[in-house]
Amino acid sequence: MATKDYVLSLVERAERGDRRALGRLLTILEDVSSETAWVLEYLAGRSRGAHVIGVTGIPGSGKSSLISRMIRVLRDKGYRVAVITIDPTSPLSSGAILGDRLRMQEHATDPGVFIRSVTTAGALGGLSLSALAMIEAFDALGYDKVIVETVGVGQSETHVMHAADTIVVVTMPGAGDDVQALKAGVLEIGDIYVVNKSDKPEASKTYEYMLFVAEKGEIGRSGAWKPVVVKTSSTLGMGIRELVEAVEKHLEYLRNSGEKLSRLSSRRRLLVKLLAEKIVLDLLDKVAEEELAKTHEGLEGFYKRAIEIARTTGEKLLNLKIQ
Amino acid sequence: MATKDYVLSLVERAERGDRRALGRLLTILEDVSSETAWVLEYLAGRSRGAHVIGVTGIPGSGKSSLISRMIRVLRDKGYRVAVITIDPTSPLSSGAILGDRLRMQEHATDPGVFIRSVTTAGALGGLSLSALAMIEAFDALGYDKVIVETVGVGQSETHVMHAADTIVVVTMPGAGDDVQALKAGVLEIGDIYVVNKSDKPEASKTYEYMLFVAEKGEIGRSGAWKPVVVKTSSTLGMGIRELVEAVEKHLEYLRNSGEKLSRLSSRRRLLVKLLAEKIVLDLLDKVAEEELAKTHEGLEGFYKRAIEIARTTGEKLLNLKIQ
């Protein structure tokens, strides 16, 4: 187990630019437990107000290449950029994700860029907690922009998306039915909508459609911000500057309206809840293992045994000490 | 909330073949809570030893069509068949899943077949619990075969797969890299491996490869059962009878070796644990909502507040009553 001194030394070294120390710190945060939860408090106390940008959208819309292009523009503006890629899928699709990561490889040697993926290696539902914990670390360590990329399936990402300051939803020409499907999903949470691959012939039709639904107020979060639609081509590098400008404008809006603070607050509240869940489930896991090892049958009385496990977990929770 | 009398009347009506009552019962089980958990105990007490068949594999391998074909053969043998489709994805991919369900539509009017999907409408991690609860219902109601189909991504399905008596892993010709990726994922859990779409030219190469790794013991669960490889084409209806024979042979093996009972036992133990988790998380959810509503800031002290939420949940757990 990571001692307090060791974790603090990692933070210190990471602050001085030691990437390996940062990597280790992130590994601890990826599987934060009741023993290491204090570090979140510590990091949050050092928050420098990073801008958290969520990027989501339909599979195949070229999110990773787009982010890679965005990083270049953000770096030109002098920002330090962190990317957290959330992958809730099994090893089945690891090939695809690996490809995505390679697409961002061009920034591997840039000391102002740090890319990290979070996979389902941890507990269920733990993906969101891991990502939120990493956001706190990057924020404390002075990264100006923290981009959270999700592959766009599952519930945990929706979670994280809601925790972002600015949400970019990526779609592409000819997505047709997909765009309709999107409406039921992420279309309502975006601040900025990107029609990527806009070098394709059907691009303007999709773009017009997005503008139309944006105008009608059918997409976007509620609030004073009117969603922006941007055409890009990550292959040709087109529209990237416009996209970054829109992202910056949204940050300005958040700051002026006071929403930046309220988004930080809801992100922290989500973190509190997920952390509490993690603490409780970790305990329950141990209790269940002990309880279920007692009998090997498990063929009857299991409802009572579930309640018993829940109660024993309750008892242990009362003895929980703050580190 | 569903009263005890109401739930019992649903079970009774479902037993007499009332499909609408069965549908309602499944809806209750999909979101089982501490109030309705007793029904699981009740259903489990009426278990008739259904054969639970898990079907998993790479996306696009034609699992749904294959299952549809299998149902026909199983029906010819006089079995009653239930299908549970697990869909851990967001609305983003609902189109695809809808298509899958349509593929099984041909059985919609057969009173001996019941098809139900479970989506992420419920809580995170709740997918497995919903599926396990539904298995208990179908088992108690006399379905001989309960097929659990997963779209093949995410952790929750791996969970459910481990709870099946017989696991069928579906791949297809030319999957190449995917097969390699599969090795890291589900290839080690299969009892029967299917090379579907075997009308395609590269089919025999993939088939030979699967036979080779099966022979070498590189795939399949540990135990005395030697994994079987079957070539099928769900489009042409080829190899389906052979697949069903392999599934039946595996059941015979499970019965003779005593493994049928031990798999039931581990399925029930998983159910106990997931049920306990659900009970605890439901409580935590309420506690967190109350706690987090108290302050709207959430900018400091959140580590202590997480512990506080966990403790309060613990207190409430001690007051839990068995219904």
Which properties best describe this structure?
3 domains; 12 helices; 323 residues; 7 strands; alpha/beta; Rossmann fold
From the N-terminal CA to the C-terminal CA of chain A, the straight-line distance is 13 Å
Please identify the structural class of chain A as seen in this structure.
alpha/beta
Radius of gyration of chain A: 21 Å
Low-confidence stretches of chain A: 90-99
Query: In oligomeric terms, what are we looking at?
Result: homodimer
Mean pLDDT of chain A: 84
Order of helices and strands of chain A: HHHEHEHEHEHEHEHEHHH
Largest interface pair: A-B, 74 and 74 residues
Number of E-state strands of chain A: 7
How would you sum up the global shape of chain A? globular
CATH topology group of the largest domain in chain A: Rossmann fold
Task: Strand order, main sheet of chain A: write it out.
Answer: 3-2-4-1-5-6-7
Helical segment tally of chain A? 12
- Going by CATH, the homologous superfamily of the largest domain in chain A would be P-loop containing nucleotide triphosphate hydrolases
Characterize the structure shown.
The structure is a homodimer of 323-residue chains. Chain A has 323 residues and is α/β, with parallel strands linked by helices. Chain A has three domains: 1-44, no CATH class; 46-257, Rossmann fold (3-Layer(aba) Sandwich); 267-319, no CATH class. Chain A is built from twelve helices and seven strands. A seven-stranded parallel β-sheet of chain A has the order 3-2-4-1-5-6-7, with helices on both faces. In chain A, strand 5, helix 8 (177-184) and strand 6 (192-195) form a beta-alpha-beta unit. In chain A, helix 2 (19-30) runs antiparallel to helix 6 (126-140). The radius of gyration of chain A is 21 Å and the shape is globular. Chains A and B meet through helix 3, helix 7, helix 8, helix 11 and helix 12 of A and helix 3, helix 7, helix 8, helix 11 and helix 12 of B.
